[in-house]
Amino acid sequence: MAKTARETFRVPGGSRDVPVDLAALDPAGRPIGPKDKSAAEADMVDLDARIDARQEALYAESVGGGQRAVLLVLQGMDTSGKGGVIRHVAGMVNPQGLQIASFTAPTESERAHHFLWRIRKRVPVPGRIGVFDRSHYEDVLVVRVESLVPEQIWRARYEEINAFEAELTEQGVTVLKCMLHISPQEQAERLLARLEDPSKHWKYNPRDVDARARWHDYQAAYAEALRRCDTDDAPWYVVPSDRKWYRNWVIATLLAETLEELDPQFPAGDFDIATERARIVESVIT
Amino acid sequence: MAKTARETFRVPGGSRDVPVDLAALDPAGRPIGPKDKSAAEADMVDLDARIDARQEALYAESVGGGQRAVLLVLQGMDTSGKGGVIRHVAGMVNPQGLQIASFTAPTESERAHHFLWRIRKRVPVPGRIGVFDRSHYEDVLVVRVESLVPEQIWRARYEEINAFEAELTEQGVTVLKCMLHISPQEQAERLLARLEDPSKHWKYNPRDVDARARWHDYQAAYAEALRRCDTDDAPWYVVPSDRKWYRNWVIATLLAETLEELDPQFPAGDFDIATERARIVESVIT
Questions:
Q1: Which residues of B touch A57 (CB under 8 A)?
Q2: NCBIfam families from the xrefs (chains A, B) (predicted)?
């Protein structure tokens, strides 16, 4: 049997003591699934139907009192495609069942609180698929690379994150975390493409080039976050993202597999069908 | 030139002194646009592109400091298709640019506040297309029909709503309000269909049949809300909704026309393109 996406893209390791070697993972790799864009597009139609059916059941389940939800966490360097995943993968889902949260630099008020304070407020409610566009991982990524807090503070956060995500699991939120893995060459091309197109200038920020200069520091910070915070309850997946269509296919597949394992169920009605049918038939409005 | 959807479906009247006669408006009418479902589906592809392009520009405009947003208000009897519009019309929009709020019966805490308190919290932020699935109009609809507050209270609300919507206009939020107009016969069929399909039981609520028994009271309440709260800044549209595909086509067209009139613009970058290009080209990561 073919390997699932969850088996294929789970961050390698299996031991928290072995460093994650991101450089050994090919950002242009296609180990399973479609070999070209048109095959991926055909697959996406099926994935849409798979995701849609389970999402509706998950939503319905919550109307019947169910507590389960899903949280898809997206992290990646600038231009890695977090926005594209929201458009093309989250865009498959009925928006009624979707809850998107984008985390930019924290405000002064947010910085005055614990780093998880603003995150907790955006955890998806029951029945929803939540998407975090950046997340609490920024607090061990940019915060670490830019030394925004002392090392002893950010170093303690890995365990705080694990405790937080265990809490989410316990309350019924299934967490899946995707690192959108791109090569520095691909990033340069995408940044240049933004400069070429005036309708993309709003996405261009000169500071992204400053962050790019610290590429290896960021990769090291990612590698440590992946190693310390990959758990069976809240696994990390490394998604080859140099090809946009493959990235979308992988994440849609991870989401479909996750929803299928949850197997949400439409709740039974707490009414008598024959009685209700009679009430409707008798209620003739003239 | 063909009439626009905004001209065609604007609630008839032009005078606040003349009652709105909903019974004279055909819920199965198709005064403009596609004559069948397959023609509508072809149109929807174009509408998707029209909406998508403007939505992205609206979002981008807000990144550049723009304050404009759009608010689509959906009201209608049970089964009229508010959920279907969210799935099929709001589902066209990049979810990043969407902000959906569903207003069910207010909680005790919400009831302790002014009726607009919970509404104001959900007004779309700049750059977003907001969708209200039910809205502040419930406070002059169900509240009136079920006598949940004294008449002098709900009667004062029409002017409070107009003042609130004028405020929205002033702060840059373009409001369009759609009443999904269905016939009582169509409602009976849809309620029966929900009973027939166990995967739709979660949508069935016996109280919907109680509300159905007060059909004419609800129509009268709608007619008065449409008459008193139809303004040039926040117009009411009556959308023939007995055919789902036509309902979706009308609302997508109203949204496209509204966005095209707004004509949002991509903001110019505040950086020097040549400088940035050189910085990227020079930042070779090995």
A1: 199
A2: PPK2_rel_1 (TIGR03709)
